[in-house]
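Appendix B. One record, verbatim.
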Amino acid sequence: MAGSDRSDARAAFERRLAYTYQLGLRAGAALDKRDELVASKREKLGALERDLHEADDLPMPRLARQLGLAREQVELLWAIVACSVDGRLVPFLEALGGAHARRGLSPSVYAMLAEVTDDSVARLAHWLATPNPLVADGLLVATEQASPAARAYVASSRLVSFLVGERHAIEPLRMASAPPELLHDARQAATVDAIAGALSRSDAAVIVIEGPMGSGRLTAATCAADTDLVVLDLARVATERIGELLIALRRESLLLGAIPALANADHALGDDRRDQRRMLGDFIDGLARLLFVTVTVPGADLGTTRPLVRIPWAVAETAQRAAMWERAVRSIGGATVAGEIDALAHRYRVGPAAIQRAVASVKLLYPAGAELGERELVEGLRHNIAEQLGGLAQRVDVTQAWEDLVIAEDTGDQIAALIGRIRHAHQVLDRWGYRRKIARGAGVAALFSGRPGTGKTMVAGLIAKELDLELYQVDLSKVVSKWVGETEKNLARVFDAAEEGHALLLFDEADALFGQRSSDMRGATDRYANLEVNYLLQRVEAFGGITILTTNMETAIDAALKRRLAAHIVFATPEEDERALLWRRHTTTGSAPIAADIDHAELARVFPNMSGANIRNAALSAAFLAAADGAAKITHDYLVRAARAEYRSMGHMVSDTAGVRTRRRL
């Protein structure tokens, strides 16, 4: 509300306090039976009453229009407000109604205060006692459960602040308005038109906008409705507060004359949250007016019996995303590096909210006026990704280098080709026009299969490091849920957050999630397992980022997933010469006291079934054995002892003399 409007509202509020105080003075004079004083007070009241006219755009007239209040109801409402905030009225109320009148204003005391002699007081008592938004939404509070005529009411602090002109939503609710400059692509503009079309055919519709978080869903709603929204984001509130906040949303939309919106409503749903689903459904059913709802999971059941209009919303195309980055950087006084924003917009398939948050973080990291390129802006994105993942995936620090990797030459060629595909996607897909040949997402999904310890997870980390990406390993124990729909919801959060921060997603032991679907469904468990795999396949295909899956059981992976892969790289057990090189690299650190007698080729020959991880474990164990013995050097015999122990732990038989050069004295 503008400053002048706020001052007008304050002036109207103060006039009402003065008027009600004069009512109290007149009532006091009447009790004192001093007719000449009563007459003078009536004259004063008449002068004040002529000055009580309120402009239509002031808070109380707007509220009266919203609720269809009669004049007598408005007068009672003003009196309750005045008696709630003006302590000078308490003695008059006590004189008229006794000590219990301190608790608030009742219709019976109001009748004496305002000298109401007709049956309107009975109508007012009935109106307050029956369900009405003022009481139901907590704007008026009954302080005692007496009969309707004797029931005392006080005005809430929110009603008082509204009447004095404070036009703002109460936290955690917020207002959403259309930005002055829109950057919608043709597809998004068509979606806004579709929403506007639905609104033109009904003023009490429930419009459900389905799309990723931060992609501009609420902005689309404000554009289509051409008015402000008051928003409750259910992804950011505690479960136990949902009931009270739904009441607050209904109240704020009433006071502010704004359309209510439930953002990320699917975060309050799920089979383990039946109470929240019922609460949400009852709220939507009882609202009986226009409501916007945004969800991240298409087809989310909102628990309502009202008809819904579901409208899909997509992240903006590359050109619009580049323009958003440019505008956001300019808004903080920065400058972009020529040629880097287009590549940034292609790599990071994020919406306006994620861009604004990233640039806000960058503003804290770099001085005003700094030239901001892809590296700096990516850093801003990464500062915000962990919060959205909510513990469902863990960031992995990559400490290895390519020099530590020993693999077959053809496997190395496949890894190089995969990196090239990711690095040059912008050129091939956008500049060369191959994007229109792709059915859905432009992301890259790769499967790494092979025995444990052959370097699958290590290569995923090296690829992330090579491409300057964060590596996040999905925590399956937190993602997979026994409740129907919860696994898909958790995975949606992971994919959405990774897409915004453009992290490389690693699904280790992916066969646990991407297992073969069953055609022989013997019960609900098989059916829901199939649904989870179906959802995963859709998300992997639509994902705009990079997904790497590792498995020790290639045959357990669903065949439909393999068709969606950009690469399937098989990590074989290392050959003898590769094992010798692994022994050399894992024993050499640059500072470890390595003896000159170590024969890496012999170790590779004597222990043929060891993978890179097994050799690493043995090399580390040998170092600890040498340290425990107080040895000056890590000798060949220490490595043999450690390798024999590792070999046995792998389940292999080893002779007492295998690899042993000298007997250890006990």
